[in-house]
Design brief:
Elements lengths: L1 H8 L4 E8 L4 E5 L6 H17 L10 E5 L2 E8 L2 E8 L4 H21 L22 H15 L3 H11 L12 H9 L7 H10 L5
Antiparallel strand pairs: 1-2, 1-5, 3-4, 4-5
């Protein structure tokens, strides 16, 4: 996995690489310090629905590209997951295409056994005790609240969001409640985000 990331980072102009599983779980990344793990986890939540609607046949796989001022953002699907790449505008596309073809051949097998990485400053999960976890009753109340906007998928989205942050809903620390809510809020339709934010604040939970 590290070798594949290194190959991508060696493409002239590439700034950062993040690799995700089909479910949006971040499994590897090499980004500048400014792009922390929480931000990359949010990227996984945002891009995961795209993976579900793209063609699944190998011969039909395509990559997507967005332009942001002087940067390019790539979404490159592979079997079992996808790769997000940030680069400068001067990236040589022939080199990019050749490198990603090789990556697409090797990455699916690695994704099958990949585990989520820890952030550079993240402590082991064992350091968090159950006593410091968010009460399950509170989580169920929040899941029910978000179901108004996310439908029956609310519970699943909460579970995935916790996993993205490196925890489960049973050991999610109270200190990370806001991070959890921000991950879930990312899945709320844009025209409803302000409404949800205000209602959450009324519940004395700032996001």
């Amino acid at each position: 996995m590290n070798q594949l990331m290194s190959n991508i980072k060696n493409i002239p102009g590439v700034v950062g690489v993040a690799i995700f599983k089909d479910n949006g779980e971040l499994v590897a990344y090499d980004f500048p310090e400014a792009y922390d793990k929480k931000l990359l986890n949010l990227m996984g939540l945002k891009f995961q629905p795209i993976k579900e609607i793209l063609p699944q046949e190998e011969g039909e796989i395509v990559y997507l590209c967005w332009e942001y001022e002087d940067l390019l953002a790539f979404y490159y699907p592979v079997g079992g997951g996808w790769v997000n790449i940030i680069s400068g505008e001067d990236i040589p596309m022939p080199v990019f295409s050749l490198t990603m073809t090789a990556v697409a051949n090797k990455l699916p097998k690695l994704l099958e056994e990949a585990e989520a990485p820890r952030a550079r400053d993240e402590e082991p999960l064992a350091a968090e005790t159950v006593e410091n976890a968010i009460p399950r009753e509170q989580l169920e109340e929040l899941e029910k609240f978000f179901a108004t906007y996310l439908g029956p998928a609310s519970a699943v989205i909460f579970k995935r969001a916790a996993n993205h942050l490196g925890y489960t809903l049973n050991n999610m620390p109270k200190a990370h409640l806001v991070d959890l809510l921000q991950c879930v809020l990312a899945r709320v339709p844009g025209d409803k985000k302000d409404e949800v934010t205000e209602k959450i604040k009324e519940m004395s939970l700032d996001i």
